[in-house]
Write a structure and sequence with these properties.
alpha/beta, Rossmann fold, Helicase, Ruva Protein, domain 3, Zinc Finger, Delta Prime, domain 3, 5-stranded parallel β-sheet, 3-stranded mixed β-sheet, 52% helix, elongated, binds zinc ion
Length: 603
C-alpha cells in the first residue's frame, strides 16, 4: 500500500482515509476492510489485501458481506464469551478510571480488534441526543458510533503493526498525538499486532506512553504478548480475551443462521464450533463456506454430512462403532475400523482423542444420570446405553488406557502403528470383568494351580528359589513316597509323617530301603524316630541312610514350587496381564492366591 505523493491527509497507515471519499454505502459494503488486515469485501477497492481466512469475496455487484464482518459485534453484549473483560471495563468507565493504554491479548479471532473498536465507541459515544458521556453501552446511533463502526472516524486511527513496523510509522503517531482530537472526546490509536513493531518503534512509542496527553488513548492488540517489552506491558491495562467455548460458539452460529434464514442441523453447527477452536471469526468463515456448499444443492440446508465432508472430519458414527468394537473385544473389526478412519484422513492422535472424548461423555452421562448432552438423538441414545452398561470402574480403566495410548501415540515414530497397538491392548483390557468378577476368575485360576501342585508329575515344572532347591528339583519324588507318608500318618505317627514331608529329599526308595538327604537347616537325628514309625506303618524293618545332598524335593518344597509355578502362570494369563496393564502399580495378592490355592492336602 503506497503513499500517494499528494497525500496531505491522515497518516499513511490509515489506508481507508486515503481513499477519495468513498460513499457510506461503499464503506458499508467494504465493512472495515482496511483495518486489521481483513480480506477486502470488494476486490475493486485498493485496500490492503490480507491473509484471507474468509471465503472468496463475492462479485462487486453483490453487496454480500462475509458473516465474520456482518456479525462483528457492535455492542459489548454482542461480544460473546468475554464477560469478565466487559465487567472490568464497565467498572473502569463508571468510575472514570480509564487507563491511557489498553492491551487486548488472545488467539486470533477471539475478538481483540472488535473489542478495541467497541472501546473506541464506548469512549467517544455522545448518545442519540449528543449529550452522553463515555458508556459501556454505546448507543450505536450517534455520529461517533456510526463513524467508528464504519471505520471512518477521523480521530480513531487504526494501524496494523504487521505492515507498519518501523520507527517512522510510530513517529507519525507521536507527531499526531500532540494535536487535540478533531471532533471526538478522545483521539484513539488502535494498533493491531503491536508485537510486530521494531525495537526502535517501541522506544519511540514508549515516550508517548509514559506521558500521554489526556485526550489520547492507545488500544493495542496482540496474539503474542510475550514478545512485548515489559516497559510497554507495564504501561497498559491488559485484557486477556479467552477462547470461546464450543457450546457458546454453537449457539451463536445457530443465531447467525437464523438471521441469515439458513437451516442448519445442530450437529453441523457443533462440528463448525469444534473446528473453530475458540475463534468466532474462524467459525463464521467455516460457516460461510458451509452455507456456500449448501447453496449448491437444492435444499440449501447445512447438514452434518456436508460439513463433515467439507472439514474432512471423520464420521462420528464411525467413531462410535470403533468404540463398540473396542469394548466388545472384536479385534478384527477394530483394526478394520482404524484403517477406515485413517483412510478418511483421521489422524491417529485425533482418533485417540475422539475415543477419550466419548469415554468422558459416557462418564458425564453416568454421573448426571440424566439425558446425555449430545448433538443428535442417536448419539444421545448411544451415550445413555453405554452409561448404563459400563461400571464406573470400567470407564476409569478405559480412560487410563486411552490416555496412556494417546501419549504413546504422540511420541511414536509411526503414530498409526502406535494407535493400533494401544487400542488392541485396550481391547484386551476392556474385555476384563469388573473387579468383583476379576477376583472370582483369579480364584479359579489359583485353584487350578493348586490342583496341579497336587499332581506329582507337575512337581518340578518350575525352578524357584535358591540353587540348592533347584538342584533338589532335579528329581521327582517317587510316586509311592506320598503313599508311604500317608501310611505312616494313618499308623498314628503324624510327627514322623510331618518330618518325612518337610525334611526328606528322597534319593532312593525301595521296599525296606530309604536313602535320603535333608535340607541343611535340619540337623537333629531323625533316623530312630523314622525307623520306628516305618516299622509301625509297614510291619517291617527299614534300612535308613542319610546322604549329604541330592534327592528329589521334599513334598513341601514341591508344593511350594508348584504354587510358584501357578503364580507365574497366572501372571502370564491374559486376564492378569490385562489387569497389570490397566493398573501398572497393582500388586498380586498372595493372600488371595494362597487362600484360593488351598493345596492343603498335607496340612
Ligand atoms: Zn453513540
Amino acid at each position: 500500500m503506497g503513499d500517494s505523493p499528494d497525500n496531505s491527509g491522515p497518516p499513511p497507515w490509515d489506508e481507508e482515509e486515503q481513499e477519495a471519499a468513498p460513499s457510506a454505502a461503499e464503506l458499508e459494503a467494504a465493512g472495515q476492510s482496511a483495518m486489521f488486515g481483513d480480506a477486502p469485501a470488494t476486490p475493486a477497492e485498493p485496500v490492503e489485501p490480507a491473509p484471507a481466512a474468509t471465503p472468496a469475496p463475492p462479485a462487486a455487484n453483490q453487496p454480500y458481506r462475509v458473516l465474520a464482518r456482518k456479525y462483528r459485534p457492535q455492542t459489548f453484549s454482542e461480544l460473546i464469551g468475554q464477560e469478565p473483560m466487559v465487567r472490568t471495563l464497565a467498572n473502569a468507565i463508571k468510575r472514570d478510571r480509564l487507563a491511557h493504554a489498553f492491551l487486548m491479548t488472545g488467539v486470533r479471532g477471539v475478538g481483540k480488534t472488535s473489542t478495541a473498536r467497541l472501546i473506541a465507541k464506548a469512549l467517544n459515544c455522545i448518545g442519540p441526543d449528543g449529550q452522553g458521556g463515555p458508556t459501556i453501552d454505546p448507543c450505536g446511533q450517534c455520529e461517533p458510533c456510526t463513524a467508528i463502526a464504519e471505520g471512518r472516524h477521523i480521530d480513531v486511527i487504526e494501524m496494523d503493526a504487521a505492515s507498519h513496523t518501523g520507527v517512522d510509522d510510530v513517529r507519525e503517531i507521536i507527531e499526531a498525538v500532540r494535536y487535540a482530537a478533531v471532533s471526538a472526546r478522545y483521539k484513539i490509536y488502535i494498533i493491531d499486532e503491536v508485537h510486530m513493531l521494531s525495537r526502535n518503534a517501541f522506544n519511540a512509542l514508549l515516550k508517548t506512553l509514559e506521558e500521554p496527553p489526556a485526550h489520547v488513548k492507545f488500544l493495542f492488540a496482540t496474539t503474542e504478548v510475550e514478545k512485548l517489552p515489559v516497559t510497554v506491558l507495564s504501561r497498559t491495562q491488559r485484557f486477556d480475551l479467552r477462547r470461546i467455548p464450543a457450546e457458546l460458539l454453537q449457539s451463536h452460529f445457530a443465531w447467525v443462521c437464523e438471521q441469515e434464514q439458513v437451516e442448519a442441523e445442530p450437529e453441523a453447527l457443533h462440528m463448525v464450533a469444534a473446528a473453530a477452536e475458540g475463534s468466532v471469526r474462524d467459525g463464521l468463515s467455516i460457516l460461510d463456506q458451509a452455507i456456500a456448499h449448501a447453496d449448491l444443492d437444492t435444499d440449501g440446508k447445512v447438514t452434518a454430512e456436508r460439513v463433515r465432508d467439507m472439514l474432512g472430519l471423520a464420521d462420528k458414527g464411525a467413531r462410535r462403532r470403533l468404540f463398540a468394537h473396542l469394548l466388545e473385544g472384536d479385534a478384527k473389526a477394530l483394526l478394520a475400523s482404524i484403517a477406515d478412519q485413517y483412510a478418511l484422513g483421521v489422524e491417529p492422535l485425533a482418533l485417540m482423542r475422539g475415543l477419550m472424548d466419548f469415554t468422558h461423555r459416557i462418564t458425564l452421562a453416568q454421573v448426571s444420570g440424566g439425558e446425555p448432552d449430545a448433538p443428535t438423538p442417536e448419539e444421545s441414545a448411544e451415550l445413555a446405553e453405554w452409561a448404563g452398561r459400563m461400571k464406573p470402574a470400567q470407564l476409569h480403566r478405559l480412560w487410563q488406557l486411552l490416555l496412556k495410548g494417546h501419549d504413546e501415540t504422540r511420541q511414536a515414530p509411526d503414530q498409526l502403528v502406535a494407535a493400533q497397538m494401544a487400542l488392541l491392548r485396550t481391547l484386551h483390557a476392556a474385555d476384563m470383568p469388573d473387579p468383583g468378577g476379576l477376583v472370582k476368575k483369579l480364584e479359579e485360576l489359583a485353584a487350578k494351580g493348586a490342583a496341579m501342585a497336587n499332581s506329582p508329575a507337575h512337581a518340578p515344572a518350575t525352578a524357584g528359589g535358591d540353587a540348592s532347591t533347584a538342584q533338589a528339583q532335579s528329581h521327582t519324588p517317587a510316586p509311592d513316597w506320598a503313599a508311604l507318608i500317608d501310611q505312616v500318618d494313618h499308623a498314628g505317627q503324624p510327627l514322623a509323617a510331618s518330618i518325612m514331608k518337610m525334611q526328606l529329599r528322597v534319593v532312593e526308595l525301595a521296599p525296606g530301603l530309604l536313602r535320603y538327604a535333608r535340607a541343611s537347616q535340619f540337623r537333629d537325628d531323625v533316623g530312630p524316630q523314622l525307623r520306628d514309625a516305618l516299622m509301625a506303618a509297614t510291619g517291617e524293618r527299614w534300612q535308613l541312610e542319610e546322604v549329604a545332598e541330592g534327592g528329589a524335593p521334599t513334598l513341601v518344597e514341591a508344593q511350594e514350587a508348584n504354587q510358584q509355578a501357578a503364580h507365574d502362570q497366572m501372571l502370564e494369563h491374559p486376564l492378569v496381564k490385562a489387569t497389570f496393564e490397566a493398573f501398572p502399580d497393582a500388586e498380586f495378592d498372595e493372600e488371595t492366591q494362597a487362600a484360593a490355592g488351598a493345596g492343603r492336602k498335607w496340612g
